[in-house]
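Fill-in record for M23ase beta-sheet core domain-containing protein.
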Amino acid sequence: MLFCGLFIVRFGESQTLQNLPQDYFVHPLDIELKLSGSFGELRSNHFHSGLDIKTNQRTGANVIAAAAGYVSRIKIEHYGYGKALYITHPNGYTTVYAHLEKFAPRIEEYIKKRQYEQESYEIQLYPDDLDLRVDQGETVAYSGNTGGSGGPHLHFEIRDGDARPINPLLFGIKIPDSRLPLVKQIKAYPLDTESTINGKNEAQLLRVISLGSGKFKTEPFSAYGEIGIGVNTNDQMDAASNQNGVYDIKTYFNGKPSFEMTFDRFSFDETRYINQMIDYEHFQQNKSRISKLFIPDGSPLSLYRETNNNGKLKLLDPEAKHTYKIAITDFDGNLSEINMDITNESKNEYLSLKDPKNATLVAHNESFSTTKGSFTLTIPKGTLYEDTFLNISENADVLKVHEDVIPLHKNMILNYDMKSKVGDDMGKYYIARITPWGAAYHVSSTLKGNTLTAFTKTLGTYGIRKDTNPPTIVPVNFKSGQWLSKNKTLTLKIEDKETGVQAYRATLNGKFILMEYDYKTDLITYDFSNGVSTETDNQLVVIVTDNVGNSTKFEANFQRKE
Ligand SMILES: [Zn+2]
């Protein structure tokens, strides 16, 4: 694995990636490392910033400090990373451990004290460098499934001094991989209105033919003008069947290097540009991700390496024959190659371009605003990646803003004039996103004067809804009036079907109790070991509020002796 050092010396790279410390970090789990997610893997609206390490479908595996250091940050949130621990090391790197079930006892004690002081489960702490020192190999937490985790695993990251995540495998962490990257789809794109693929100004999927041993070709095709190629590829490692991301993709046009991207480091403020890097419309329609092997205009992604003409191919010489090659490698250097033959076709003088019927051209570098019915739509400058034709219409208080096949980088703003609702409990109204199958999803909306405002990064159809139903609260492991001396916990199910749970608060005999909330199961749980009450007779009060302010109060009495 030492030869990996060869891979990390690249054009355009800063010095630091060439001299990463090897064998400084040990495995963050004391079980065999099997990955369900790799660094840079393509995810919804982001590149994956670490390794997802499998924990045998269970929670509770020992999570150990990958190197000595101090706990520099603790973040507990309902969504996202759930319970997460950050350790900063003397060499300037920080390791991150996320979706944890709980922390080691002294860290757990440190956090609980502050959760009770702030009366909040969600918390963010930046301990001093002397507060929580840890040794390499020390158990600092137990693996879990908290936050936006789809199954028990450990999310592990290594970040540099500028908080940029780096591929942890570059630090000598070894995971056996002898399998070749998978090649699933290849697509060719005309990049302007004059360019053609097989005579048409439309992107086209090309048939992929496997020749064995990681060699592929596509059906031959003809093209004219400026075009680009895209690939849908994944990698599998030896110990698990999960389909992870690849490490490097390089292309050659007529034998000369054309484009390269390497998944070794990026920064969080670049991560949303993934929606411009992939064929977003193809993803929305097929749920598979095709990576463009050319740099979209304005993309700041640092995953790109040296390119020729940004990886775009110029085919202006009728009858000429061209070759194009895509070389895909995983971290261990296993190589899959696709060879393509392209015939240069003549310019199509009779090209029929798609007529953008009733569409409005919205410039990407100017702010755009339009009023339709009671709605005013604003698309701020820099929200679109390129100038785009959008279909915008309104009918019976439903605003259609194109459809979700074009990515937005920033929020667009929807304002709704509430004058027809004056006097009708206006605070209970919200803007909802209406799916093609008619389901309505709450979009966080604020009412100021007579204007209801929502921000969203998703094109699509929006309407007005009113939620007057309060949340429900149901005890799960007890009933009011019972003796609960044997209970270790109090667990309740809290739900709000329409706009969702916005906040909850629980007290025992008037004193705040810490309840941990898991949005995936709708459960809130109090652990009696917190010791808030030593009374025999207890009164529990739980108040849950939804996203438009409807609230429900639940009360129960119970007896308990330790
Ligand atoms: Zn992860």
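KEY FINDING: The CA atoms of residues 376 and 422 lie 18 Å apart.
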